Amino acid sequence: MRIHAKYRQLLFISSMSITLTFIMSGIMTYVLEGGLIPHFMSAWMKDWGIAFVIAFGLNFFLPVRIRRLANRFKKGQLVVYVLTISFIMTFILSFVLTAVAMRGFIPGFAGYWMGAWRVAFSIVFVLNFFLPQWVGRIVGTLIMKPANTSVIT
Question: Which of 12, 38, 141, 145 has its Cβ near the most Cβ atoms within 10 Å?
Fold first, then answer.
């Protein structure tokens, strides 16, 4: 099944959000819940759903603005882009996931949040160097190629 080319960006954003939040929410659940607990999978899937909704929304408006910022740097555009988007995404997502895991803002919240954020940022920062290219190639294979209109019949 091929998808029309006008949906390429939506498919890319969806695929990136699904993949990145799946990995990040798994790590966050592991860190915040204290390891592989009996209800780990249900907690992970709940966190993944929450993270996906937030990341999907952020992925619509953040990349364009961050690319504008990164384009100001002659050298290191990719590093500035990856650093900035990883920082913002993991900062917001780790905050929400920590609040959900702890069922609100309890004493010590900031310590748990910063601990979980450091782990998530480290993983997402590395993933953002190669995951967009990987997802882009997969999305490219799913997009319908335009019909060749120059063929004379």
Answer: 12
